[in-house]
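Quick one, T. Sequence first:
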Amino acid sequence: MNVQLVIPVTRKTPARAIGLGLTVLAGLAVMWLLVGLLGTAVLAVELFILGRLLLRAANGH
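Structure tokens:
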């Protein structure tokens, strides 16, 4: 007999939020080192817009 343990993971868990925040900060730091302040602002806006589009597509909106 097989037993499966299923742990639900939502986007609202504190650990996931902290991990996402650290990932975003690391990405912004790398962008700042590579392209400067203005490039970082432009890339951050582009990534934000793309992320929203991906979420909308995933949810079927």
